[in-house]
Amino acid sequence: MRASFLAILTLLMIGSANACAQNVDEQIKRVTSAMTPSIVIKGAPEKYHSLADSMAKYKVPGLSIAVIHDGKLAWAQGFGVKTAGSNDAVNSNTLFQAASISKPVSATAMLRLVEQGKLSLDAPINTFLKSWQLPDNDFTKTEPVTLRRLVSHSAGLNVHGFPGYASDATVPTVQQILDGKAPANTKAIRVVMTPGSTWRYSGGGTTIMQLAMVETTGEAFPALMQRLVLDPIGMQDSAFEQPLSQAKQALAAAGHDDQGKIVNGRWHTYPELAAAGLWTTPTDLSKWAIEIAEARAGKSTKTLSQKMATDMLTEQKAPSGLGPALGNSGEAMYFQHGGSNEGYSCFVAYFPALGRGAAIMTNGDAGSVVYRQILNALAKEYQWPAYQAREIEAVALDASMLEQLVGEYPLPAMSPNDAPRSAFITQENGKLMIEAAQFLAKDEIVLLANDELIVPDNGFQLKLARDKDGRVTHLAFGSRKLVKKSR
């Protein structure tokens, strides 16, 4: 009788497991087969496309996704290939460069050192620096640069990000990077506005934090991160290795530019470890996100105390906490961070009160367009309170406006070696289209009431500039001016 009962129980458990697996497979299918653009036009028919179509359109060879639901890893899966033109498939253990997601992971170790009394969030940063000092100037006369301000991007520093170094290039020391001295390829990191006055993103500031951590502990940064964060959380596929060790290279996805071309040498090297140096997987990033949320809830102390984790997820200078960027409030609150290194684009987001989130990593420069569409699909499937597609209302274009907009717009060179390029705005079947070779695939662009032109599929934006009579004089692309070429 007991044997029969055990047999029935075993069959029930197997059936339940199979049902759960089938349910997950159905969720993955819905997410990856019925994606929508990040921006949808009000009143227009819904446009659906597959993940494979989006990857092909934006020339992203491979990506990996890990989804968190009910505070646990729900599923993790790879798509596409590690290297364009190969059959080497991406899987859940494939390594990608985390780029700027390195920053909040590094901040976790810094906050542990604060809790251990080895660093202070509010003491002047030069207190913890030995081999190099941040120069004082008029901006620091009344307000100091501190770790709190460095980690929340409110220290008033320059140098937004880093391009990395080609595989055959000489790599500078951290001190050379901070002073902008050869072979460093970025400017000296300096205070350019009053600390604490405003939010200004600075990977340079994170690099100063890196030096403070190393000089305070006497440990090499990779070993320090392994001891304080990666090992305690169980991020077994992660390492702050720059360059990547030979043993791990076979596991790594190669970086690709926005045309799907492999980055020379497969990837760049980033000595700015805290800012951009982490190699990891979406599964490991999910472990980090879950751990921070568990610490905040008082359920874990593997890395941070409840108080410190709460401080980490408390706004310091909008939109930053002590590392992550923050959004919403109450149960809908989430923390997030994106990252873009040469050839890679990635994102992690988590709703701690709901136990829902995801990490997405891609090996393409245009991967941010694809991961935004994945986030939209995940938000719909798992009922997230953010990341749904944004709805816009397009303005009808009359003949006069079409005449003013349609034409060729020479693009300003991004560097002295750039070949001449143009963006072309055309009219096709009553729709306004835009295309720029080697930059922007042909796509519909619509006009909004605030004089913005936007491509719903990828979020590309331009702004109309008008004269006193209301006629369009040029288009603005950020700070750059696009003037239509005379016929």
Span of the ends, CA to CA: 91 Å
Work out the helix count: 13
Radius of gyration, taken over Cα atoms and rounded to an integer in Å:
24 Å
Pairing-aware structural class of the strands and helices?
A: alpha+beta
Question: How many discrete structural domains?
Answer: 2
CATH architecture of the largest domain: 3-Layer(aba) Sandwich
The count of β-strands is: 19
Low-confidence blocks of residues: none
Strand order, main sheet: write it out: 3-2-9-8-7-6
Apparent shape: globular
* CATH C-level class of the largest domain: Alpha Beta
The fraction of residues in strands falls at 15-25%
The fold-level CATH name of the largest domain is Beta-lactamase
Helix content: 25-40%
Main β-sheet: number of strands, strand sense, barrel status?
6 strands, antiparallel
Average pLDDT figure = 93
Features:
487 residues, alpha+beta, Beta-lactamase, Lipocalin, 2 domains, six-stranded antiparallel β-sheet, five-stranded antiparallel β-sheet, 13 helices, 19 strands, 30% helix, Beta-lactam/transpept-like, Beta-lactam-related
